[in-house]
Design goal:
The protein is mainly α. It contains 15 helices and 4 strands. The protein starts with 14 loop residues before the first helix and ends in a 5-residue tail after the last helix.
Length: 342
């Protein structure tokens, strides 16, 4: 429903995503530092975020379920919307992960943030580990950062919270590209932030239709707006398939009807639950089966499989309006009585 029309959707507005995109526009205004962006209202957010690093919070990797209570319902919802957009599962470059407000680094199942360490520029996992992934000793960390009164228990808790997978596969990029910093810069350049953000979120949550994913897997990326043209990749080099379709039409439908390209790809749409769709479904399944088994499709082989499918339908009752009926009767009239014997 929410997919764009080019992906087979109806482009219906996703209300929750639309509301999230509107809330994120406030984050853009809060983070903007250019001329004319020194509004007094930012003091309100600074006050509620003073214990959370203020603008620094929006660079952290927080799941929406882990967003702390920020003292104001709207600000909490705003941060939830931000987390739903920006949260990423770390895959590499673990050394440059920000350790504060990170959903993967918790002490007693709680996010951690120490303002006095943040104010000294200690923000990353690499600040607590050697290049080989082993933790720095307490004394080494304390002396290097001039933290003479830093408690050992605090340091031990932070180091113990760093996932072992990060330590074993520690990488530290010299010039890291922070996804959130890049996103914030992109937001700052945009004028219609909510519209752009809505498009980004829809692309992230929408799922490609099954048929589209299947065709793209077999034919790489298909230009769907050009799908029914003669130059389409789906119709080039498919002489054997085309011949099979023609043979099936002649055998089961006679000379009176020919399937269009739209019918083959998306089903016969003239009537709901039309019997032709039963034939189209088994025909497409047979074509893909031949592709998987790398064998040449032919009408005799398909005839055997389709006959078996019709025999199976004899034993499958359907229910409609409280009454039982068998689809086979309609199939029999459509594909057997009308044409030559199978």
């Amino acid at each position: 429903m929410i997919n764009p029309t080019c992906l087979g959707g109806l482009k219906v507005i996703d209300v929750n995503t639309f509301i999230d995109s509107l809330k994120i526009t406030w984050i853009k205004r809060y983070l903007s530092a250019g001329p004319g962006n020194n509004s007094v209202w930012k003091i309100f957010l600074d006050y509620h975020l003073k214990n959370f690093g203020r603008q620094f919070y929006f660079q952290c990797n927080v799941k929406d379920v882990d967003v702390p209570k920020l003292g104001n319902k709207f600000i909490t919802e705003m941060c939830n919307a931000w987390s739903r957009l920006t949260y990423k599962e770390p895959m590499d470059d673990f050394g440059n992960e920000i350790i504060w407000f990170n959903s993967h680094v918790k002490v007693d199942n709680c996010l951690i943030f120490y303002r006095f360490l943040h104010s000294d520029g200690i923000d990353y996992v690499s600040d607590f580990l050697h290049n080989d992934g082993t933790p720095r000793t307490y004394i080494e960390f304390r002396d290097d950062n001039n933290l003479h009164n830093f408690p050992f228990t605090l340091y031990n808790g932070i180091v113990s919270a760093i996932p072992h997978v990060w330590r074993e596969n520690l990488t530290i990029t010299a010039h890291p590209c922070n996804f959130k910093t890049t996103l914030i810069d992109e937001l700052d350049r945009r004028e219609k932030v909510s519209q752009w953000m809505y498009g980004q979120k829809i692309r992230a949550i929408s799922e490609r239709p099954t048929a589209l994913r299947k065709w793209n897997y077999d034919f790489d990326e298909v230009k769907w707006y050009n799908i029914f043209s003669k130059k389409s990749v789906l119709f080039r080099g498919c002489q054997l398939v085309s011949a099979l379709i023609i043979d099936v039409e002649m055998k089961y439908l006679g000379d009176c009807f020919v399937f269009s390209k739209e019918d083959i790809f998306f089903g016969y749409k003239q009537l709901r639950r039309h019997m032709y769709n039963f034939l189209i479904y088994h025909l497409k399944f047979y074509i893909f089966q031949c592709k998987q088994e790398t064998k040449i499709p032919n009408i005799k082989d398909f005839n055997c499989k389709f006959t078996f499918a019709l025999e199976v339908e004899k034993c499958i009752p359907r229910k409609e309006c409280g009454k039982r009926y068998y689809t086979y009767n309609k199939l029999y009239e459509t594909f057997i009585l009308r044409n030559v014997n199978i």
